[in-house]
Design a protein that fits this description.
The chain is an all-alpha fold. 44% of the residues lie in helices and 0% in strands. The chain contains 3 helices and no strands.
């Protein structure tokens, strides 16, 4: 999604840690909107059968813990 936003001039809702550097470099900007006041759910895409793999469960927990702080 980030690649599309950067290359196509699109907009989207992305976690701040993912776009922080792009904001600092002024490649992206924040659109002031009440949409930003709501909490968003994010998902992780995996290959079929991989979501139950212990490594994927660990990774999902790590990403969730990291984003929770923001």
């Amino acid at each position: 999604m980030l690649k599309t936003i950067l290359s196509e001039g699109a907009w989207g809702v992305l976690p701040e840690p993912l776009i922080r550097q792009h904001l600092r470099e002024q490649e992206l900007s924040v659109i002031k909107h009440t949409y930003g006041l709501t909490q968003e759910d994010y998902c992780m895409f995996t290959s079929a059968g991989m979501s139950d793999h212990p490594a994927m469960i660990w990774l999902a927990d790590q990403v969730s813990d990291y984003l929770f702080d923001f």
